[in-house]
What does this fold into?
Amino acid sequence: MQDYRMRVLHDTQAAIPEWMLERVEAVAERLHDCWSSKRFSEGWRYGPIPDQEQMFKPCLVPYKDLPEEEKQQCRFRAFDALFSVINSYEVSDVSHGSVTLRLPE
It folds into this structure.
C-alpha cells in the first residue's frame, strides 16, 4: 500500500486576491449545499441530535441556519478550495464580474 502524504495548501508565498476573498461565503454556502444534497440522497435527514442508526444530522439545514461554528468550517473548506485554484491556475483576466483562468504553460 502506498503511503499517503497530505499536501499542505497554505503557502506563505501565495496570496489570495481580494476578488476571490469576497467569494468565500458564496463558495462556503455552495459546498454546504453539495454536502447536504449528498447526505439527503443517502437517506440522511435533519435531526437535532446526530444519530447514526436513525441517520439524523443536525446540520442538514440551509446554510443561513447553521450555527456559526459550522459556517466557519464551511468557510475553511471554501478558502482551501479557492487557494487550490489560485495555486493551480493563472488568473489572466478579472473584469465585469467574471474571471478567466488558464493552466500555466
Helices lie at 18-21, 24-41, 68-88. The CA atoms of residues 7 and 81 lie 13 Å apart. Residues 18-102 form a domain with the Globin-like fold (CATH 1.10.490.160).
